[in-house]
């Protein structure tokens, strides 16, 4: 019988709704796994019980440490239960920094544990089954939700569920920058752009000590003149600026004048990777001391992103 460690961190999969109508994490790992029908031997580690909006990079390190302990103790696989709001960020950080063969499967839920149509139990069942399957060895870090197995790179939560790259039908391409500490990684901020925006946010991030900025640019990689000036100042000060876009699913091509000026200022193009994951990739690239342009040329373009297909 294979042995899987379920590490809980909170999220909707563990929430019930209070008398005030607010959903809060209340379910322990034992509660979540009590009804599991599987021939896998399950062990629980209750690591955290928070809404995933509260997680910080240091918490990613706590998860990495729990994964490492499970591997050292000889587990065949690990499942991490997690809120969906920031799952794409945690999953990508773990993917970038975990090189082991033991499968690490993140899962969560879109509906509370006390909902009549709760999706958590089915998602957890899928995750435990996958993590305990001998054929999953070497798969690295994946996310399973709603019957789909996603690679972390390119995963995005949308109003209608997740979009990303379903790895089940294809060879898994792992993305790695080596063992790194998220808590000690340089500060990287995401800056929004909009009609009439100025450089206050860019300048403030630099003043706050950011070593990287992800510009959530307009369209295919544009920004107003004042923002471009701010990017020029940031790049001249040695801050790595990456151009992403605020348009879901769009590609940054910098084919217009303002985009060209951003590149001339020293900014790097992220192609299709959404801003929250650009931030994680930039943090890891800076922490690893890798050239930012090379890292984004390699992984900033994610082909085959699709909505979930329920099998
Ligand atoms: N707010 C929740 C969280 O991210 C949402 C969810 O889990 O679906 O923790």
Automatic annotation (TrEMBL):
Family according to the record: Belongs to the asparaginase 1 family.
EC number(s) reported in the record: 3.5.1.1
Protein name: asparaginase
Domain L-asparaginase N-terminal positions: 3-159
Domain of life: Bacteria
UniProt cross-references to InterPro entries, sorted A to Z: AsnASE_II (IPR004550), Asp/glu_Ase-like_sf (IPR036152), Asparaginase/glutaminase-like (IPR006034), Asparaginase/glutaminase_AS1 (IPR020827), Asparaginase/glutaminase_AS2 (IPR027475), Asparaginase_C (IPR040919), L-asparaginase_C (IPR027473), L-asparaginase_N (IPR027474)
Keyword Oxidoreductase: no
Database matches in SUPFAM superfamilies: Glutaminase/Asparaginase
Biological process annotations from GO: asparagine metabolic process
Alphabetical keyword list: Hydrolase
Gene Ontology molecular function: any one: asparaginase activity
First-tier enzyme category under EC: hydrolase
Active-site residues, Swiss-Prot/TrEMBL: 12 (o-isoaspartyl threonine intermediate), 12, 84
Binding site for substrate: 52, 84-85
Domain Asparaginase/glutaminase C-terminal: start-end pairs: 187-290
Reaction(s) catalysed (UniProt annotation): L-asparagine + H2O = L-aspartate + NH4(+)
Keyword Hydrolase: yes
